[in-house]
Amino acid sequence: MGLYIIVSVFILMVSALIILVVLVQNSKGGGLASNFAGSNQYMGVRKTADFLEKATWTLAIILLVLSLASIFVIPRTGARQNDVTQIEERASDPIPAGPTAPAPGPEQQPE
Questions:
Q1: Is position 88 within any domain?
Q2: Domain tally for the chain?
Q3: Among candidates 48, 11, 10, which has minimal Cα distance to 31?
Q4: Alpha helices in 25-111 (DSSP H)
Q5: Is residue 100 part of a domain?
Q6: Residue 65: which pLDDT band, with cuts at 50, 70 and 90?
Q7: Which pLDDT belongs to residue 27?
Q8: Other CB atoms closer than 10 Å to residue 59's CB: what's the count?
C-alpha cells in the first residue's frame, strides 16, 4: 500500500510540473522564451525553447512510465482473491437438473 501511495504522489508531482512547463510555452514561439529575447548572452531564445521542449517530452515519458508502474503496485486485498476463488468453485459445480414436481399424494390420485 505504501509503494502505491508513493507512486501516486510522484504522478501528481509530474502532472503539475508538465502543466507548468506547457503553460510557460507559447505555440507561436513566445512564452518564457520571449522574456529572454533581450539577454542573449548565456541562454538564447532558441535554447530556452529547446529546453522547454525537452522538458515536456521528458516529463511526458516519466508520467507514462509511472502510470504503467502504478498498475503493478495497486494493493490487492485477500477478500478479492477469495471472491475470485469462490466464483471459480461455483463454475465447476455440477448444474442441478431443475425443480421436480412433487409425487401425487393419495388425495390427488386419478380415479
A1: no
A2: 1
A3: 48
A4: 32-35, 45-72, 78-92
A5: no
A6: very high
A7: 66
A8: 20
**Could you report how far apart the first and last alpha carbons of the chain are, in Å?**
74
As a whole-number percent, the residues of the chain with pLDDT over 70 amount to 54
Is the pTM higher than 0.70? The answer reads no
Angle at alpha carbon of residue 43, lines to 41 and 48, rounded to 5°: 150
Helix, strand, coil percentages, rounded to 5, for the chain: 65, 0, 35
Per the domain annotation, does 91 fall within a domain? no
Neighbours of 31 (CB within 10 A): 16
The three grid cell numbers given for residue 79, joined into one nine-digit string: 477478500
**Cα–Cα distance for residue pair 97/71, rounded to 1 Å:** 43
Query: Is residue 3 within 8 Å of residue 37, measured between CB atoms?
Result: no
Report residue 13 CA to chain centroid gap.
Answer: 15
Domain encompassing residue 11: 1-29+44-71
pLDDT one-digit tens code per residue, 12-53: 999 999 999 988 887 665 555 555 555 544 555 567 778 888
509511472: which residue's cell?
66
Q: Is residue 111 part of a domain?
A: no
